[in-house]
Amino acid sequence: MSKHKRPGKKRRSSVRTRDWEQNPDADFSHDLSRHRRAQSKLVQHADVEDPLPTDAPPNAVVVSHSRKWAFVKKADADPHRQPSADDTLLCKIDERLVEEEESLLAPGDRVFVELEGEDHVVRAIAPRQTSLAKCAGKHGRLERQIIAANVDVLVIVAAATSPPFRPGLVDRFLVVAQQGGVEPVLCLNKIDLVEEEPPEMRFYRELGIGICRTSCVTGEGIAALRDKLTGKTSVLAGHSGVGKSSILNTMDPELKILTQSLSEATRRGRHTTTLSVLYELHDDIHIIDTPGLRALGLWNIEPEEIAFYFPEIAATSMSCKFRNCTHIHEIECAVKEAVEAGSLPRARYESYCRLRSDLDAEKRQP
After folding, report:
1. Residues 176 and 296: beta-carbon distance below 8 Å
2. For 246-298, how does the pLDDT look when each residue is reduced to its tens digit (9 = 90+)?
3. CATH second-level architecture of 60-127?
4. Which residues neighbour 235 within 8 Å (Cβ) at sequence distance 6 or greater?
5. Fold topology of 133-289
6. What pLDDT shows up at residue 219?
7. What per-residue confidence (pLDDT) applies to 67?
8. 171, 131 in Cβ contact below 8 A?
9. Angle 268-270-275 (CA atoms, 0-180°, nearest 5)?
10. pTM here?
11. What is the rounded CA–CA span in Å between residue 197 and residue 63?
């Protein structure tokens, strides 16, 4: 038999009025004991997990890494002994170390490693003194990709031929070196394949950039390159196929780094090195070998600022008629006049124009 509501009877509200000020613990729940049981089950992360160390001294250097793991070299390894596998540790990366707009780790980073049970864990990363970075691209998680950290010298490796010498990438690397506070050295490799070096090399000599001419076949220039890198941390960078890994093998044959010849179809280098790795050689030489690059996106540079990374253009621009001269389409431009007169290298000017055009195009994109 169904129940019938009596006419005029008010329906009782299911919401109870509580006086939160008098008894907040009880009124938070319909049942005080149930509320207390629920509180006891809550995990207080701040109490369970210790905070990450903020002032722990670095005790290792990153050799190579992936997203969750890192190979590091112990700081207490004997520097006078030949490096061995016992000097390196495979470490987990603490999940509380969050990757934001730039790479969390890079070869050369100084880190604090702690033993947790049977695992070594990277707990902290020291601030970087210097860094080499590039724009990470539009579709990646990062904005700034760190190529190497805490390096003293950037060795820009270019081939005299096969693949052909490309001054545009050299100029981009010079900009990146200035941004990161790193000394650039231009290494012209494979000189045994040519009778004369590329004419653009004269411009870089006039800029005062250190230059090494090397051959992994004859051994020419390898000793001079070693002298420049002794006692320093360096990074080798350049196009694929220019001979970065071959230079390392020539400097230390015990490394036995895998190398490949150029592609017969494209006459370009193949990506043999797929991961940046820090190597330790005799004479206190530390070198980071990097994968070959076919493009190098500049990070955090406005189109108006690029001229300051070309010292010869910046100096000549003081005589331009307009203070905001782009040195591309204006009349009475001292830079363009110097290029026509031959006092400024046309190749460097064209490289400037390409960089300025690329930065303008990137700025217009949403």
Report:
1. yes
2. 999 999 988 878 765 544 444 444 445 568 899 999 889 999 999 888 778 88
3. Beta Barrel (2.40)
4. 107, 108, 132, 147, 148, 151, 153, 154, 155, 182, 287, 288, 290
5. Rossmann fold (3.40.50)
6. 95
7. 81
8. no
9. 135
10. 0.79
11. 34
